[in-house]
Amino acid sequence: MELTFELAEKVLAAQPFSVLLGARLTAFGDGAATLELDIRDELRQQNGFLHGGVLGYAADNAITFAGGTALGPEVLTGGFTISYLRPAQGAVLRAEATVAHAGSRQATCTCRLSTVDESGDVTLCALAQGTVIALRR
Questions:
Q1: What is the pTM of this model?
Q2: Residue 77: Cβ-neighbour burial (10 angstroms; 0-12, 13-18, 19+)
Q3: pLDDT score for 22
Q4: d(Cα 19, Cα 57) in Å, to the nearest integer?
Q5: What's the distance, Cα to Cα, between the start and end of the chain in Å?
């Protein structure tokens, strides 16, 4: 079964944590997925920056959705790493993931995490790479 944009939106809406964070898919297909969420005070750490766990969530989910474009809808994250480049601050967090390589059961994906401020300026704040595994039942 192919993972369409409409089905991907339903999958995201069925994830209670994603709903809690207010995550949304803004692009999906052709080996890529973009996830965005509004940066709110509840998501910040003590210094006023977006909490690293939120960036980790966004990388994980964007990577898994990107992998799903190659492997289908029944996938799980096999693992991922993230490198924080600078503190995340702005109005929106954007996680843009692409498939670097896909086989029949596994895909390796990369993700660029950026913030967008009120004037539309984009700042790269983290990079991630992960493996997505297809479930075969």
A1: 0.96
A2: middle
A3: 97
A4: 12
A5: 13
